[in-house]
């Protein structure tokens, strides 16, 4: 872990890296991150919205040097940093109303084509407008973790859905999200885009960053970062991440 200690920017995925999917970060992780923020600049990038970041992540960070923390929700299509007035938006790649109309329409056509049957109970929104991203979640945006995890563990269902969506709306970026979701953004916006935006806005070369995430395999939502050349560390979950953070702060 000596090499990691020399990195200027530590970049984390959120779901299944810093916390379980859509679940609040635990107190131990919050304490470890607070200690890390005293030593390093830290970015967090995820498919979740800024509101989700607040619920799941920033609300748990009651201590720590927040001016060293940078948030890149919806796969880097927005950027927030901490200033005198609290969290301040630096940029937002908003989808137009027409973009969103086409995306929602494409989901409807895709459901019919693949034979997706609406669950009897939907938790939250089935298709969520996150302003910079549209996200489909099979049981809804607030579904219980066991239900989400069991639906498509090998991504086969979502990859079949994505193949249809790519034919219907090729002008957008379409990828698997968390355990049961599909994210749609403007073309070219993914976590690799987010890494390059970090380099641009934070003035930190990619060679001085490390990305820590759980989903770096082919088809995973962390996979695009590999193309940037950033050093990567793949983790198996939040407990594994804690061990890595401990090694950087001891």
TrEMBL record:
<dbReference type="InterPro" id="IPR036412">
    <property type="entry name" value="HAD-like_sf"/>
</dbReference>
<dbReference type="InterPro" id="IPR005002">
    <property type="entry name" value="PMM"/>
</dbReference>
<keyword id="KW-0460">Magnesium</keyword>
<comment type="similarity">
    <text>Belongs to the eukaryotic PMM family.</text>
</comment>
<feature type="binding site">
    <location>
        <position position="130"/>
    </location>
    <ligand>
        <name>alpha-D-mannose 1-phosphate</name>
    </ligand>
</feature>
<feature type="binding site">
    <location>
        <position position="214"/>
    </location>
    <ligand>
        <name>Mg(2+)</name>
    </ligand>
</feature>
<feature type="active site" description="Nucleophile">
    <location>
        <position position="13"/>
    </location>
</feature>
<dbReference type="GO" id="GO:0006487">
    <property type="term" value="P:protein N-linked glycosylation"/>
</dbReference>
<protein>
    <recommendedName>
        <fullName>phosphomannomutase</fullName>
        <ecNumber>5.4.2.8</ecNumber>
    </recommendedName>
</protein>
<dbReference type="GO" id="GO:0004615">
    <property type="term" value="F:phosphomannomutase activity"/>
</dbReference>
<dbReference type="GO" id="GO:0006013">
    <property type="term" value="P:mannose metabolic process"/>
</dbReference>
<feature type="binding site">
    <location>
        <position position="15"/>
    </location>
    <ligand>
        <name>Mg(2+)</name>
    </ligand>
</feature>
<keyword id="KW-0413">Isomerase</keyword>
<feature type="binding site">
    <location>
        <position position="181"/>
    </location>
    <ligand>
        <name>alpha-D-mannose 1-phosphate</name>
    </ligand>
</feature>
<dbReference type="Pfam" id="PF03332">
    <property type="entry name" value="PMM"/>
</dbReference>
<keyword id="KW-0479">Metal-binding</keyword>
<dbReference type="GO" id="GO:0016791">
    <property type="term" value="F:phosphatase activity"/>
</dbReference>
<dbReference type="InterPro" id="IPR023214">
    <property type="entry name" value="HAD_sf"/>
</dbReference>
<feature type="binding site">
    <location>
        <position position="13"/>
    </location>
    <ligand>
        <name>Mg(2+)</name>
    </ligand>
</feature>
<dbReference type="GO" id="GO:0009298">
    <property type="term" value="P:GDP-mannose biosynthetic process"/>
</dbReference>
<comment type="pathway">
    <text>Nucleotide-sugar biosynthesis; GDP-alpha-D-mannose biosynthesis; alpha-D-mannose 1-phosphate from D-fructose 6-phosphate: step 2/2.</text>
</comment>
<keyword id="KW-0963">Cytoplasm</keyword>
<dbReference type="GO" id="GO:0046872">
    <property type="term" value="F:metal ion binding"/>
</dbReference>
<feature type="active site" description="Proton donor/acceptor">
    <location>
        <position position="15"/>
    </location>
</feature>
<dbReference type="GO" id="GO:0005829">
    <property type="term" value="C:cytosol"/>
</dbReference>
<dbReference type="InterPro" id="IPR006379">
    <property type="entry name" value="HAD-SF_hydro_IIB"/>
</dbReference>
<feature type="binding site">
    <location>
        <position position="183"/>
    </location>
    <ligand>
        <name>alpha-D-mannose 1-phosphate</name>
    </ligand>
</feature>
<dbReference type="InterPro" id="IPR043169">
    <property type="entry name" value="PMM_cap"/>
</dbReference>
<comment type="subunit">
    <text>Homodimer.</text>
</comment>
